[in-house]
Amino acid sequence: MDLSYIINELGEEREHYFNAIAPPIVQSSNFAFDTVAALRDLLLDEYNGFLYSRGNNPTIDILRQKLAALDGAEDALVFSSGAAAIFAAVLSQVKKGDHVVCVRDPYSWARRLFENILPRFGVDTTFVDGTRTANFEAALRPHTSLIYLESPNSLTFELQDVAAVAQLARSRHITTIIDNSYCTPLYQQPYLAGIDLCLQSATKFISGHSDTMAGVLTGSRDRIRRIFASEFLNIGSGIAPFNAWLLLRGLRTLEIRLQRSADSTRKVVSWLKTHPRVRKIYFPLDPDFPQYELAARQMKGAAGLVTIQLNAGSRGQVEAFCNSLQHFLMAVSWGGHESLAFPACATLRTEDFDVNDPRHSLVRLYIGLEDADYLVADLEQALKKMGEVE
Ligand SMILES: *Cc1c(COP(=O)(O)O)cnc(C)c1O
């Protein structure tokens, strides 16, 4: 399906709403029926229509169709956050006694689900270095029911060979889930590479304006329908109609936002590579990135996130760099219009900072929609300020 068709037309039956170009926000929790027979039909299988907005809602339905098509999948569910999508997806695939193989360093709240919550229900997880497919194979057990991927991750961008892991899992009848937030379906379509369930934090690029939280889960009609009828309705963490409308609006510009951010990111990366105060750069489409070849083969692009290891002699220097930025805002998250900086040392107690641990001098940058030269000038003055402190 044509990307322009998906973004501008798919699911938009304008004749049902006065030919309005922007879809309506159907701000209703509830839907009425003319006959007992019609009500009974939907109570039997809520998937098929509009009964109650914890399940289906017309505004959200338009969004679901677009998000499924973007992934090349058959259906989608939209949640109130990416974390909710992760929770429902994982919960749907495990039962007591099962084992999960998860890529090392997944998104922090995915890791906490595997480490803190699932063990309470008798589900164990093995974390593996996902840069080698053989590591997944070696970790499998007779009761492994799920392989959980995130390629690339959103700090140091380690990749997995998505098609190879999908093939391994299929040969063992193990379900695969991938967190595709970094690439979005525009730069990577894991469903078409054989992954069973794809999820994204739509809070990031799909929304694109730092004004709503959301999560997306896509897969085959059969899998999504089963999750809808169980975890989705039971957890009750579906997106609200207004937030779905914000995502529809965000989608209109997704392609050009990613393109702009990708172009600026390339410019910023090539400038950073020449700067003596930057020791190392992590960016998957940088030819010096250790998995560059896999990234170039598997991903159609990369935008926004780039992590630098500062050539810093102290915590004070890392902090001086971050505190001196004038246009990059210091914050978690990413994917909006605004450029951001996030220092890894903010996750550490000050006394735990070790100048010899390269991870402690990492600063993740997100390159938003500002002009690249404007951002480079900001980085330049902040790197200079960094050199002025002990
Ligand atoms: C932000 C993020 C999530 C969680 O999404 P929320 O919308 O914040 O709940 C999951 N995975 C990745 C890679 C993320 O960056």
UniProtKB/TrEMBL annotation:
The keyword Transferase does not apply. Its cofactor is pyridoxal 5'-phosphate. The keyword DNA damage does not apply. Keywords: Pyridoxal phosphate. Transmembrane segments: none annotated. InterPro entries: Cys/Met-Metab_PyrdxlP-dep_enz, Cys_met_metab_PP, PyrdxlP-dep_Trfase, PyrdxlP-dep_Trfase_major, PyrdxlP-dep_Trfase_small. Belongs to the trans-sulfuration enzymes family. This is Cystathionine beta-lyase. It comes from Chitinophaga alhagiae.
